[in-house]
Amino acid sequence: MTRYLLHRLPSALLVLFGASVLIFLLLRLVPGDPATILAGNDATPESIAAIRHQLGLDRAIPVQYLSWLGDLFTLDLGRSYILGGEITELVGRGLTNTLVLTASALVLAVVLSLLVSVASVLWPSKWLNTVVAAANTVAVALPTFVVGPLLVLVFAIAIPVLPSGGVPPDGFIARPDIAVQYLLLPAICLALPVAAALTRFLTESLRTELTKQYVLTARSLGVSHREIVTRGALRNALPTMLTVLGIQTGQLLGGAVLVEAAFVWPGIGQLIEQGISRRDYPVVQVLLLLSVAVFVVIQLITDIAHAWLDPRIRIGGRS
């Protein structure tokens, strides 16, 4: 497993390096100048030039990139141009909220998909398959910016049992019962499309496994259908689910931007939106590269878990 991990690391580092170059260059193509925004509308050209010099924006692009890359290696993320404060503190607060939200949504999506998929295979019936297929279609078809307001209208306004948005005032640890109430609606909104995709793939994988020879052999030996599904078919179907889960986790992070906006959740998504709209280059650069890094790490973890479940992948990685 260690050799397989070392085999995968160079490509992950290459992706991060390429992403850093693209992010740095693309942000310089965005219309607008942070120095002009900081100086104000009535600022003189001399004032704008002085601010550009102070921020280092008058240096050559390669010099700016190398300086930024050096700061990243030393974990010196610098200060925000517009939002104010240390970028480390801004990212730390936003990342904590986003990770709590996405982790909750991910757990909810995995649990729902496992329950629905196993139930569909254990108790196959036409009406259950129809209900599951319809629910999956609706969950995938409706975007999060539609589902979010609908959940708020139903569970925060029509039936006021849950908060409409925001984060727990006392944090997530001091009062877990209150934290769950704040988390429930945005986590459901974020988890539904992921749960639908996982359910569809896992259900089909389980049905495919049940047609294989080892299942026929187990049935001939008197093994119950429940044991075949839960102990045999489910384990063999998990690698396919893990691959889809890795892809869906990346989409989960992307969908968190819209969900955070709908539920006023102060996470990375809102921070990226504020940084882009105000041309705050240092904040946006770090956040975008962090998003790519998280996606790369998730894919790496998915590949390792896949290789652990399927030894053929490890053998192929060593050859």
Automatic annotation (TrEMBL):
<feature type="transmembrane region" description="Helical">
    <location>
        <begin position="179"/>
        <end position="202"/>
    </location>
</feature>
<dbReference type="Pfam" id="PF19300">
    <property type="entry name" value="BPD_transp_1_N"/>
</dbReference>
<keyword id="KW-1003">Cell membrane</keyword>
<feature type="transmembrane region" description="Helical">
    <location>
        <begin position="135"/>
        <end position="159"/>
    </location>
</feature>
<keyword id="KW-1133">Transmembrane helix</keyword>
<dbReference type="InterPro" id="IPR000515">
    <property type="entry name" value="MetI-like"/>
</dbReference>
<feature type="transmembrane region" description="Helical">
    <location>
        <begin position="99"/>
        <end position="123"/>
    </location>
</feature>
<feature type="transmembrane region" description="Helical">
    <location>
        <begin position="285"/>
        <end position="309"/>
    </location>
</feature>
<protein>
    <submittedName>
        <fullName>ABC transporter permease</fullName>
    </submittedName>
</protein>
<dbReference type="InterPro" id="IPR035906">
    <property type="entry name" value="MetI-like_sf"/>
</dbReference>
<keyword id="KW-0472">Membrane</keyword>
<keyword id="KW-0813">Transport</keyword>
<dbReference type="Pfam" id="PF00528">
    <property type="entry name" value="BPD_transp_1"/>
</dbReference>
<feature type="domain" description="ABC transmembrane type-1">
    <location>
        <begin position="95"/>
        <end position="302"/>
    </location>
</feature>
<dbReference type="InterPro" id="IPR045621">
    <property type="entry name" value="BPD_transp_1_N"/>
</dbReference>
<comment type="similarity">
    <text>Belongs to the binding-protein-dependent transport system permease family.</text>
</comment>
<keyword id="KW-0812">Transmembrane</keyword>
